[in-house]
Structure formats: structure tokens, C-alpha cells
Amino acid sequence: MNRKEEIVKFILNEKTLVSVDLIAKAINASPKTVRNELDLIAPILQEHNLTIIRKPGQGVAIDGDPSDKQRLLSYFKTKHDTSYLSPADRQRSILSKLYAENRPLMIKELSLDYYVSRSTITKDISEINEMIKDFNLVVDYQKGEGIVIVGEEADKRKALAKLVPFEENKNLVYYIHDDQGSHSFMNRFQNALQLDFKKVEEIVAEAENKLGYSFSTEARINLIIHIAIAIRRTQQGYNIRLTQELIHALDDQKEYSIAFETSRRINEEFHVELSETETYYILLHFMGAKRVKEGLNVLNFKLSSDTPVLEDLILKFIQNLQIELGLFLESDTQLFNSLILHLKPTINRLIYGLSLDNPMFEEIKFSYPSIYGAVANNVYLFRNMFHIEMPPNEIAYLVLHIAAARERNIKPIRVLVMCASGIGTSQLIVAKLKRAFNNLEIVDVISTMDVSDYDESMIDLIISTVAVQSKVKTIVINSLLSQYDMNAIREIVDGKKIQPTSKVRLYKEDIHLMVDLKTKEDILSFMARHLSAKNHVTEDYLDSLWEREAMGPTVISSLIAIPHGTFETVLRSTVQVVTLAHPVLWDDEHEVRLILNVASTKEEASDYIPFFTHLADHSEDLELWNRICAMRNKEDLAQALSEILMIRV
After folding, report:
1. For 513, which DSSP code?
2. Last residue of a domain, one of 389, 409, 429
3. How confident is the model at residue 577, as a pLDDT?
4. Which residue of 56, 83, 279, 361 has the smallest Cβ count within 10 Å?
């Protein structure tokens, strides 16, 4: 007996209000579960002209005519599982039925199947159309016959893979990593397609062995889904359509023979005849699946792809990101290799119109907003070269690679320990610090008398037993480094309140205030002309500024633009500052009043990391930047930028 039926029968058998606790005890469930079930039972009662009465502190009852109550009990006796579906699950079930039945379905027929009114089914169809519209599909009513799904076969398969097997608010990751969920997923999948899920899984495993590499978990599950759908749709008489141009492009792919063998195995196992285009479709999925390279040490050597253009684009992509994010990533071989391994199959998929779902998309975008924005700004490199669109779910996968690189490249906090006592005390302090913090680099241990011997730009934090005069953040501690001192250090270190000083230099002659220029062209020419006159840049610098502008946005807020040329055209690193008398349109959307022209040699690129970090931290503070733009004195502006961006003047 279903739990809902148990609850209804228990309530109907009682002559008075019955408490939720008593119901819970009777059906061996928690009171919370009973309350949730009552919420789901209410619509069923309404369909039978009954209502549920709830009185706080007294209990619940079912109100209505005895005949309707009897009809409700009869309903439970003859009812299939579809009676207990939530609206969202019912809609997915209807969608599954539209695929499985392979014929038009009448609304009256669906109403009887699901024990709901025709108006409810009509509302369900509207919701289904909302679900499938992004797949270029529509549920259409054919007069006198019923409803069918209208659209291209490839789009129907995408929707079937994405929508049918899953419960509301759950995704593929849930089913992969949860044993009970995985079982539920396989049951739903088998019910939707009427296929043996395990057999498909075995065929995919055989293909992996022949290909010589393993797919990632999500790619393997996606491949299983799409192959199973191909089998079922072929059984129903539907075939995928591919252009001859695409088929010719796939003819020479090394994976073709394995795709052909996989098709043969499918034909044998499921007694179908996959068409040649279905084999090509399987090949597309092989080419586009994310792989796990076993035994590859991506840390020790730089991979080479068979597409040199892709290598050059990835390097340019990394260079652009490091400027926008204030990270030095060019020397990160692991990042380069990871992007090679990720982007080659990704580009293959996107060229042929296949895109992977990303169940982590919202979480990634929320967790790494600055990285997501920078990646989104620079995927135009791949779009322009390969004529593809990089959708948000694919951008989010790239974000994970950059986020991992950022974690690898976080530099330790450079600490200078000063002690007025003997060497024993200072060594005790150092030992305690090393044991408690793994992100501190003890640069040296010195006497407080020697503080003037150190370059402050090389130090992020001073920990001293006595007060000292220094521009560097200083914590004064007890000579025995008490727990109070440790907590104070931890607050700064873990709270990331250290503001490393940038080595970047701001020269006053490179500051230009309230310049009256009308266009972006005028501004770039003005900046290049002034830097060239002081021998800071080569004569090709203006061209390199325009090359960078052509690549993508250089606006980082509604007020600020950060144009920059190539390393090769810079002779002396500097930051050129231009404030405008009036806002100037920089691109199609943004007007700017402040231009920070970042001119850097390749050797000094890493020095700009703190600069960009601080700029990103303050970029949305419009009140601050409006004050900067209003300044009329170079010394005041230089001092303000020094404090905000931690640069030297």
C-alpha cells in the first residue's frame, strides 16, 4: 500500500480530528514526512471534491460527501504510480510518453492515465513547451489526432537526454555520486527508453578500451545516454540527419573504425540496424567527450597538440587572463596542458553543434565571478578562429582550470621577524610560526636595529617584539608569542588583510589630468605619442594598442578602461594615467572617464599582479573613482592611487 493511501485510510477511519503524531506512529514515519505527504494529498482530494481540514493543536480530517470518500478509496485501489507524481514529475512523464509511444496522444487519454483533469493536462503541456523551447521544439496539437513533439530529430534527442530521466532540481552529478540516486536514475532511464542500461554501459567501456583512453565520469554518462537514445529512436524508425559536408569532414578521423565497431556491437546486442549517419553521430560523441589522460604528468613537460593554432590561441588566452585577473600564469605548464586537453575535444563538439550540460554552472559562476567574467571576455579568441559559440556552461568548465591555476600560483606572505631579545627567543618565534602557518615565508630574522637594511617592497608583513617605524604592515607581539598574538596574526593571514606592495612605478610625467579628448582614437593616439616621446615605448606601440582593442573589451567598470599594448613594444614599464574632462564612449556600451594604460615589459609582467589584484578589489567603488577623476593635482592623484593600488610614486 502506498504511504499516501495509508494516510488517507487512517484519517477516514477516524471519526474525529486525528493528530499528525498519531498518523506518523501508525505508518512508521516522521511527523515531518506526514506533513509533506498531506501537502501532496491535497490536490488528489480536490480532484474528488474533498478537502483536508487542518486545525493547529487538534489534528486533521477529510471533509466531504461519503460517496466522494468511497470514490477516493476506489481510486487508490485502481491507481497506478502516476497518481503520486508532482506536477514537474508528471510533466516529465508526459514528455517521456510522447517519445515512447511514437504516435500522437489525446489529451483525454493523458487525463485518464494520470487521473487529473483535462485542464491540468493542458497546463502541463504549456509547462512542457517552456521546458523544450530552448531545444527548438514544441508540443503541437494535430486536429483529430492528438499532441506530438515537433522539431529536428537531433534537437529531440538533446531534450530527451537532458530532461526525461531526471527528477526536479537534481542533476547528473547527483545520480553519479549517490548510490540510491544512481539506482533511481537507471530505473528512470530504463523506463523512459525501455532499454537495458547496463548493456549500453558495457559497450561504452569496450569502446574506451579500444580508444586507449578513459572518458571523464560526466562524459561517460553523457555518452551512455546519447547512445541509448540513438538505439531507442532507431527502433522507433527515426534517424539523425547530418550534412554531407560534415560527414566528409569526419571520414578521416582516427576514431571512425572504433565508432563503426561500436555500432556493430549495438546492432548485435539490441537487434537494430544503426544507419551510417548514426555511426557518425557516435563518432562525434567520441571526439567531443572529455578525457582522463592516465599516466600523464602534466607538471613536468609541455604538451603539444596536432593543432599549433590552438596552442598559440591558448597562450594568448592565458596572457589576456593574467592581465585582467592580476595573475602571472604564463609559466604554469599544468594550466597550459590542462587547457590543451580540455579545449581540443570541446572545440570539436562545438564545431559540430554538441555542447555538454554543466550541472555545476550556477555554483561556478557564483564562486568565481571575476574569473568567469575574464574568461567570458576572452573566449572570442576561439570563437573567431573556429567559428563557434562558447555557451555559458562551457565557459564555466574553463573557469575551473583558471581557478585551479590561481590556487597553485598564490604566493606566500613574506614575513620579516624582528626580535630585541636573544637568538633563542627569535628561533622559538620562527618555529611556532612555521608550525601554525603554512602560507608564511620567513624571509629573515633580524635585530630591530637592522630594520633599515631591508627593501620594504620585498616584505609583506613584519612581526616584531617591539614597535618599529615602517610603511609595511607590522604586528607587535610578546617575546614568547602568546595565544593572543597567534590569533592576531591568524586574523590578518587567514583574513587576507595583507596588501602586498607592488613594484610598479607611477611617474608623475605619465599622469595627464582633465584632458579634453573626444574619441577613443584620440585618447589612444595621445597616450602612445606621450610615451614614445619619453622613450618608454617603440614606434609600433599604437598599433599594438589597437590590436588589443580588437581582441575584446578593456573596460572593467562603467568609468575605467585599461588598454595595453604588447610586451615587445614596451621599453620601460609604467602606468599611464589619463583623466578626461568629459566621458568618452569606449565601446558600444560604456563611457569612461579614467584610463589606466598598463605598459609592461615581459620581464616585469609578474610585478603587476598586486596592482591588478587591488584594481579588481576596488573596481566597483564608483564613488572612489569619481573622486579620483575630479582631482586637479598630480601629486594628490598619485598619492591616492598609491594607497589604492599599492604602487610606488
Report:
1. E
2. 409
3. 95
4. 56
